[in-house]
Amino acid sequence: xxxxxxxxxxxxxxxxxxxxxxxxxxxxxxxxxxxxxxxxxxxxxxxxxxxxxxxxxxxxxxxxxxxxxxxxxxxxxxxxxxxxxxxxxxxxxxxxxxxxxxxxxxxxxxxxxxxxxxxxxxxxxxxxxx
Length: 130
Known about the structure:
Elements: H1 28-34, E1 40-41, H2 42-45, H3 54-66, E2 70-75, E3 81-86, H4 88-91, H5 94-106, H6 108-119
């Protein structure tokens, strides 16, 4: 039996859109990390991904499956259930995702400063950034 996913696996105050490195859609990298230690049911994935709507999680899982990164397995015995797990191709993304996470942690303050600076209103005589 696998240990349950940690509900605090992803920091709720850490906006995923702040990190400029993406793997698929906004949620794909986090879904891949949730599947790192074995297959998970949809409801298990929703625990650490509490900010995602069921419809969005379904769409992300289908996209990951289409791209060959995640396999969907339906079991009928002893009880009907569906699990998602990483394929070999999906597992090959774990190291690049870890590198991207390490880079983002190292440059977090710079990323926040740049984001905040770009959202400030332009001063008189200064051209607004887009």
